[in-house]
Amino acid sequence: PDLPDAARAVIRSHRDAELVSEAVLVLGAMPDPRDLRLLTDLYHDIGGADRVPALAAAYAAYEVPGGHNVSYGPPVVALRNAAAIALGRFEFPRDHRLGSSARETLRRSYTTVRDGRQDRPFRRDDWRQRYAHVERGSWELRQGLISLGRIGYDREAELLIDVLRGRHAPRDAEHPRADPGRGFAAIALGLYLQRVATGGEDLADSGTQRRTARSARRTLADTAADTDEPEDLRAACVLALGLSGDAANAASVRAAVAGERDALVASHAVLALGMLGDRGALVAAGRLLPPPHGGAGDAIHRLREQGFARENDPLAVVRRRAILA
User: Fold this and answer.
1) Quick one: which of 245, 226, 223, 217 has its CA closest to 236?
2) Of 198, 146, 200, 163, which Cα lies nearest the Cα of 325?
3) How far apart are alpha carbons 175 and 30 in whole angstroms?
4) Fewer CB within 10 Å, N- or C-terminus of the chain?
């Protein structure tokens, strides 16, 4: 019972971003209504520096000439990501007030509006509108997508499907298809489908849920099979089908990577088949990842360079680590 109080004390007094991030995660492990406002403000960067010394120190460390704070310095991202993950631990029935508030925090964002002579973050915006204006380094909203998949329902899943389809790419993105948020949305949909497959009491077997789940599976499978899509996104989609926990999705994984030549996609497809308990996973591994002429050592090297460890963008590792967390 004293652990949350200790975590709050750490958040209020320490300037070490790593330590404070761990304290924020403790609050997520033991959801309490008293912490929702702090997590919301930290996630959306609303005056959090006034109450979190570590955030203020992180801003000071990344201040650039002219007094502008770089809001996506690594310590700031770590703290806000921790808040996003903590909010994703607020797992409550659909009609529970605390769970509803956490989902709304993740689904929405906030912008600064002019109030007299001061700029204050009073306006609450739909996430879709906010995301179109975020800087490409604003990873926290993308981490929030994964949390939405953990605790969301049909309404949240529909948003995730739209993001995966590329309908809400940031306006400064050179190529909307390359928006890293799409990979986060894919993994989030896998987590949503996992909850649907387990049939929890809070997920009523309604017609709306069945339609949303079908749409999510279809969108993941279609994106995974589209060779015009970025390889890391296709890998995220096949892995999301593995995360779903529904053995019926194994056929979609195999169909999506039939004749696959990209080692990143193929290696994640094999992993997805294994996660689904598919007996053909080993056969698929031999077909999709044939050892090179140099033997097993070269095969391991090939996987390391072209498979799991390959980074097509800086967020590829973030996605994989988030999956395993």
Assistant:
1) 223
2) 146
3) 40
4) N
**Mean model confidence pLDDT for the chain:** 77
Token representation of residue 20: 């404070």
What is the per-residue pLDDT for 221?
95
What digits encode the pLDDT tens for the residues 139-148? Answer: 667 888 899 8
Q: Which two tokens stand for residue 296?
A: 């097993």
Angle ∠(230,232,234) on CA atoms, nearest 5: 70
Question: Residue 304: CB partners within 8 Å, gap ≥ 6?
Answer: none
Structure tokens at 55: 């955030």
- Give dist(CA 291, CA 274) in Å, integer: 19
The pTM for the full model equals 0.79
Polymer length in residues for the chain: 325
| String of DSSP letters for 77-128 | HHHHHHHHHHHTT----TT-HHHHHHHHHHHEEEEEEEETTEEEEEEEEEHH
Task: Name the least confident of 193-207, 209-223, 296-310.
Answer: 296-310
Most confident range, picked from 42-46, 159-163, 286-290: 159-163
Neighbours of 283 (CB within 10 A): 12
Sign of the alpha-carbon dihedral angle for 161, 165, 171, 173: positive
The radius of gyration computed from the CA coordinates of the chain, to the nearest angstrom, equals 21
d(CA 141, CA 109): 9
Which DSSP helix (H) or strand (E) runs through 207?
helix 207-225
